[in-house]
Amino acid sequence: MPSYTLTVNGKSQTVNAAADTPLIYVLRNDLNLTATRLGCGLSQCGACAVLADGREIRSCTTTVARVAGKKIHTIEGLPGLWAAKTGKPLTPETVHPVQQAWIDEQVPQCGYCQSGMMIAAVDLLDQNPKPSVQQIRAAFTNTPPSPHLCRCGTYTGIVAAVQRASKAIAG
Amino acid sequence: MSILGPTLTRRDFVKVGGVLVVSASIPAPAKAAAGADAATHTLDASKLASWLELHADGSIVARTGKTETGTASTAFYAQAVAEELDVDPMKVSVIGGHTDETPDGGYSAGFLGGVNNLKKVAAYTRQALLGLAAERLKVPVASLTVANGVVSGGGKSVSYADLVKGQQLSLAIPVTGRLARIDPKDPIGITDLMGIIVTGEPPMKPTEKYKAVGLSHPRPTVADIVMGKPVYSGDVKVPGMLHARMVRPATLGSTLIAAGKIDKAKFPTAEVVVQKNLVAVVSPNEWEAVSAARAVAAVTKWTEWSGLPGSGNLTSNLRSQKFEDVGRRGDLGKADAALGKAARTVAATFEQPYVRHAPMGAFVATADVKADGAITLWSQSSQAQGARAHIAHIMSVPVEKVVIRWAQGPGQYGRTTYGGDGAMADAAILSKLVGKPVRVQWTLTEDLAWSSTSPGWVADVKIGLDAKNNMVAFKSDWYSPHENDARMIGAVLAGMPEISPKTKPFYPAISTVWAYDKVPAVVESAFGVPNLAHDSANGGLRGNIMRTPWQRQQNFALEAAVEQAASVAKADPIEYRVRHTTDKRLIEILNETSQAAGWKSRPSPSPEARKAGTTPVRGRGVGVVIRSGAQWVGIAEVEVTPDTGVVKVLSFTTGVDVGKVMNPRHLKSNMEGGTVMGLGEALFEEVTFDQSKVTSTDWTKYRIPSMGDAPLVKTVFTSRDGRGINGGGEAANTVSANAVAAAFFDATGVQPKRIPLTPAYVKSILMA
Ligand code: FES
Ligand code: FES
């Protein structure tokens, strides 16, 4: 099996995997980063979203070969991402403002979709730090390759949490 | 000393693991409660130690067989325990589900019943602790007060922690009932699903005195989910485990001719495993299991089969079947007589196709079956003791040999309420065959084709009106395949002993709660048939309950008919409903919700209603349901573009009177989420099938609402004492479909007789 060097959550890691292995299996099984959830496996739901060079990708259909050399961030790496952005030291207490907003708003019901939702929120707020409600709804619905789906129907809470995170990031 | 039945004895100083506790000895996260029995893997529910641990640091661990499904029941449990003990709810943690660590079993559905056990245990414990404090402080129990876990009286005080330090409190908890078990005579095949119930009436706080209940207490696992901790059933890793992917039959009724072989050059560590019609590929590497399973599936040969009517012919097929009576409420003769005398009648037939739970993650389970028959199974089943009994049955081992380790999963919305369904049977069977732990992950396509479904239905409804167009008679006949098939498909395919197949319908029964009590003659009847294609090799389309079961479907027909009667009466739909009920709570929440939604009183359809044109036309509608003691109202505003048939929900207001609100934030979340789920049924959801298999097998073919499909949901609720604590987790999905259908009628003047309101259906009724 070929080996790939990936930068995941700021750490460079080498894994052996078949070239067509979707990134999600490497994250969950080889690197023990299980916050990235397997939903549809078909690029249709967003549960598996991670950041590659700061932009959302679907790890269920993106092969490990395609992300070699890119900076990957998963939910586990959001505190580190925030620490790096603010220049503050990373401690066990560091929480990304998006995660804090999700906790404050108690967004998750079953929670299964929420890792992907938070990744989409981080991507959105990076590109548009003060999105309107319409822009938030459009981002979670129309950004390719598919809407971010939540069967528990937490969309109202997600919009509130993105707005809260936006305020927190603006300071 | 005897306090209200339970006895309190002081034991010798107990010190285990360096922690002094009142009952169990091991701090959370615990291995096993003190009442655990290593031989039976079962807790003794009559011992306090099985339920509650009071630790010397003031923290409390509560144990319940009920599980968290996403409705925040674990937050409510912590609040209820905190309330009865008068401690800070943040000090209470809840262990749920594991069959060897929790005493009572039971449904996750209906947390109200679930919370009663822990509430009573906490109340008994409080009485015992007050007894100890009275001795210690030398004041009578009656003069003691408790705040924040500190008992005070006679100018002195002592904390629970200090009271229990160095002691063991042995308190007998009075219980009745038993853990779930297989019963071939039971209509479902599994009985005692309520589990063990704590009995007696210990003094409990009146709701007016509640402090912890009523707070927006955070749900315990939310922070772990958000921070990405491994909390899900799919995150379980057992040393040495293999990954499995299933190779399912080509059709719902196919049997295996020959399983494909593994190309070892391509997939060196993968193996095919076969038992009867159960085919799987296992590998230590998950991606290899996925890839090899696809390759094997492509060359595996199955018999051909067709025996489904095709979803397009569902209603006519149901009409042609021989239904059996399965339940009636009301007086048929009286209702028929009243209909005969009515000034006019309104009659309609309503229908809905098969829909399904459709969680965001497919079924997953991990099993470790040992050579001696001992089974450990990691599962997200919401009925862990039922799953335990069921797995023991199919694997032919005593129930004591089976431990279910529960972990959270994607929301199941009722499909594991009877314990089974999903990957558990696959995992146990495969683990036994390969002699290693096996993790089975279904695919979305497999889940949308092979998991159980909420069956389609048809209802004939007739309303009799008097000269003033008030309702004087109501009659409904509801037809549907049964929705209680608890079998696990893996066990069926592998030919394992299963609970009795459902060839006899016994449900649906009548599940509506009749809100319009001024209507003098009402009869509701239900008729059932077995699964579609029930006599095929694999059991056909397995029917199962789904969020707000029966009532969701039956209420749709009921409310749609009332809507029609209101329009005949040229009455405002809310005023017309109010006219027919004496339920003050319903009237109150109807008023509050309609005010919040900006409802203007007028009859439907709207004066602007139109059934043609390329520009959108708007309408508004209302739906009502009473469920688990709570009154629900949904009000939708929709926009219909007649020429394209596209329906868009512009706004939605959901109101509920649950009496005392236990947790405002999570009630709001459940109201919002349930509403969105109901919008899916109103607009998109239909399980489609051809003559041999389900065809709606991904998110483009089984469409559920996206953020853009659902409006921001407005919620209306107020906590009210003196009305009890009633169900807030479930029924929002019931009112949304009714409100949308009514709003569609308001906008177009054409009443839908079917959901979902897909563009094709909408165009067909607007052009008719
Ligand atoms: S799991 Fe990747 S998009 Fe659904
Ligand atoms: S919170 Fe359950 S799927 Fe989104």
What is the secondary structure topology, with strand pairs?
The complex is a heterodimer of chains A (171) and B (768).
Chain A: E1 3-8, E2 11-16, H1 23-30, E3 49-52, E4 55-58, H2 64-67, E5 71-73, H3 78-86, H4 97-104, H5 114-127, H6 133-142, H7 155-170
Parallel strand pairs in A: 1-5
Antiparallel strand pairs in A: 1-2, 3-4, 3-5
Chain B: E1 8-10, E2 36-37, E3 42-43, E4 52-54, E5 60-64, H1 73-85, E6 92-96, H2 111-137, E7 145-147, E8 150-153, E9 156-159, H3 160-164, E10 169-171, E11 175-177, E12 181-182, E13 190-191, E14 196-198, H4 222-226, E15 242-247, E16 256-258, E17 271-275, E18 278-283, H5 286-299, E19 301-302, H6 314-320, E20 324-330, H7 332-341, E21 344-352, E22 364-369, E23 375-379, H8 384-395, E24 402-406, H9 424-434, E25 438-441, H10 444-450, E26 457-465, E27 471-481, H11 489-494, E28 521-529, H12 551-568, H13 573-579, H14 584-596, E29 617-627, E30 630-641, E31 646-657, H15 664-683, E32 713-716, H16 732-748, H17 759-767
Parallel strand pairs in B: 5-6, 15-25, 23-24, 27-28, 31-32
Antiparallel strand pairs in B: 1-10, 2-3, 4-5, 7-8, 8-9, 11-14, 12-13, 15-18, 16-19, 17-18, 20-28, 21-26, 22-23, 22-25, 26-27, 29-30, 30-31
In words, what does this structure look like?
The complex is a heterodimer of chains A (171) and B (768). Chain A is of the alpha+beta class. Chain A has two domains: 3-76, Beta-grasp domain (Ubiquitin-like (UB roll), Roll), CATH 3.10.20.30; 78-170, DNA polymerase, domain 1 (Orthogonal Bundle). Helices cover 40% and strands 13% of the residues of chain A. In chain A, α4 packs across α7 (155-170). The longest helix of chain A is centred in the last third of the chain and has 16 residues, at 155-170. Chain A is globular and about 45 Å long. The model of chain A has no long low-confidence stretch (mean pLDDT 97). By secondary structure, chain B is of the alpha+beta class. Chain B has three domains: 8-217, Aldehyde oxidase/xanthine dehydrogenase, molybdopterin binding domain (Aldehyde Oxidoreductase, domain 4), CATH 3.30.365; 242-304 and 363-442, Aldehyde oxidase/xanthine dehydrogenase, molybdopterin binding domain (Aldehyde Oxidoreductase, domain 4), CATH 3.30.365; 573-767, Aldehyde oxidase/xanthine dehydrogenase, molybdopterin binding domain (Aldehyde Oxidoreductase, domain 4, 2-Layer Sandwich). Helix content of chain B is 26%, strand content 22%. In chain B, the strands form ten sheets. Chain B has a seven-stranded mixed beta sheet. In chain B, strands 20-28-27-26-21 form a five-stranded mixed beta sheet, sandwiched between helices. Chain B has a four-stranded mixed beta sheet with strand order 29-30-31-32. In chain B, a hairpin with a 4-residue loop joins β30 (630-641) and β31. In chain B, α1 packs parallel to α2 and α12 packs parallel to α16 (732-748). Chain B is globular, with a radius of gyration of 28 Å. The interface between A and B is large, with 58 and 61 residues. Bound molecules: FE2/S2 (inorganic) cluster (2 copies).
